[in-house]
């Protein structure tokens, strides 16, 4: 039997719906680590389903670092303006702009393959996939530029 507390803890860690957390915990027979893997795999499947949908909304995020000597501007796209205003989407855009300033990727493909500076256990692509699973919309990296004096 899966307890409400287990579901609550998994939901807090993942921000995925209560029902999906419950189902993952049931499949994992209460093992949280296995449930996280199940959710992660499910998120990849969801992201693949959403990948063909157009992402024409979004926002432009700027990040300035090192006393104004390094900066990055990023266009991050999603499907609706509703998600573009979501705090998780805004946080993702900020984190990606910060990552670009720190790591100076040459192009979007290189950016997606880089380990995320805040959690090197996952790539930028995995970070975006997790956010797609949480928000339920396709997310694409648009243009970006890094400037340094």
End-to-end C-alpha gap: 59 Å
The side-by-side strand order for the widest beta sheet comes to 1-2-5
Number of helices: 7
Structural class assignment: alpha+beta
How confident is the prediction overall: mean pLDDT?
Answer: 87
- Overall, the morphology is elongated
Describe this structure in a few short sentences.
This protein has helices spanning 4-14, 18-27, 32-50, 81-84, 87-103, 108-113, 124-135; strands at 57-65, 70-78, 115-116, 119-123, 140-148. By secondary structure, the protein is an alpha+beta fold.
Describe this protein's structure.
- This protein has about 150 residues and is of the alpha+beta class.
- It has 2 domains: about 5-50, Helicase, Ruva Protein, domain 3, CATH 1.10.8; about 55-149, Tetrahydropterin Synthase, Chain A, CATH 3.30.479.20.
- The protein has 7 helices and 5 strands, in the order H-H-H-E-E-H-H-H-E-E-H-E.
- It has a 3-stranded antiparallel sheet. The chain has a two-stranded antiparallel ribbon with strand order 3-4.
- A hairpin with a 4-residue loop joins strand 1 (about 55-65) and strand 2 (about 70-80).
- Helix 2 (about 20-25) crosses helix 3 (about 30-50) and helix 5 packs antiparallel against helix 7 (about 125-135).
- The longest helix is centred in the N-terminal third of the chain and has 19 residues, at about 30-50.
């Amino acid at each position: 039997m899966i307890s409400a507390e287990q579901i609550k803890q998994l939901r807090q860690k993942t921000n995925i719906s209560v029902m999906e957390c419950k189902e993952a915990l049931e499949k994992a027979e209460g093992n949280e680590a296995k449930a996280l893997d199940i959710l992660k795999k499910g998120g990849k499947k969801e992201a693949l389903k959403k990948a063909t949908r157009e992402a024409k909304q979004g926002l432009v995020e700027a990040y300035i670092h090192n006393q104004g000597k390094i900066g990055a501007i990023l266009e991050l796209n999603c499907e609706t303006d509703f998600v573009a205003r979501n705090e998780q989407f805004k946080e993702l855009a900020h984190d990606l702009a910060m990552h670009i300033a720190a790591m100076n990727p040459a192009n979007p493909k290189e950016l997606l393959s880089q380990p995320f500076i805040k959690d090197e256990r996952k790539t930028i692509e995995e970070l975006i996939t997790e956010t797609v699973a949480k928000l339920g919309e396709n997310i694409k990296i648009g243009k970006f530029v890094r400037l340094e004096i």
